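Q: How do we represent a protein-ligand complex in a form that can be generated token by token?
A: Start from the inputs.
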Amino acid sequence: MAWVSEVGGGYGTTIETTAHLFSRKSRYQQIDIYETVKLGKLLMLDGIIQLTGFDEFAYHEMMAHLPCCTHPAPEKVLVIGGGDGGVLRELGKNKSLQELHICEIDEEVIGACRKFLPETACGYDDPRVRVHIGDGSLFVRENPASFDVIIVDSTDPGGPGEPLFGEAFYRDLKGALRPGGVIASQSESPFLLPDIVLRLNAITNKIFKYADYAVIQVPTYPTGQIGMCVASDARDVRPQASELPPELQATLRYYSPSAREGAFHHPLFVDRLLQKARRG
Ligand code: SAM
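Then emit the structure tokens for the protein with S-adenosylmethionine bound:
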């Protein structure tokens, strides 16, 4: 038995493991996959928790279904990052989607997850999936007016995810949308990284006509939660524009119309942060 920790910002999260299933330094990052005592499999990149089997459903369901239900009839979806396949797995449940593209920079993450994390990487088995290996910031620039929904499931700033946290990238994201398109991006925890939450919301409010911020409860992420920016030029992003078919909804454990509604209601300090972001 060994304890594995993510540490930073003055504190850490420690998880008890039973086996170190995979360890390799790729061109972009250190990749580690563990079996744990209580939390199922654990994926870490550069020592930062990406997912555990215990609560990945919360993050992946919200990242996939919330933006797709913000669009009235999405057909073509792009995931940037998301190498573990969890967002793809959730998108795959939605049979009205026609093309599921993923642009992941590190093909070694995909390979490791396909071998050791089939629970999430089964997302790649869907015949609608098209995999593009490369930097998502370049991919969106090279594919204007192409997607109904773009989901940015990135690592934190620093490392290969750095270009995915700037204003230029968000302008290119908007350019890669078809008319009526919606974006959703991993946008950090307001307890842990309020400066980044402020910056990303200021960017989305500046660039898109409608922008908002939802929070997802994910116990194994530092502070137990993570946020997502949601934005569109076409419509207010809070109301649900389309419903999931009942048979799909029945497979879910987190996303629902009421969980969606709740995710946009915040404690005072977050509301104040978002008001500041709207003022620019
Ligand atoms: N849900 C996770 C989190 O927030 O902790 C993120 C999961 S997913 C594993 C993140 C993926 O983003 C990684 O596989 C990483 O290789 C990929 N990534 C980082 N920077 C990227 C970039 N510039 N373009 C495309 N993919 C990128």
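The chain has a mean pLDDT of 97. The pocket of S-adenosylmethionine is lined by residues 28, 45, 50-51, 59, 80-84, 103-106, 109, 135-137, 153-155, 160-161, 163-164, 186 (CB under 6 Å).
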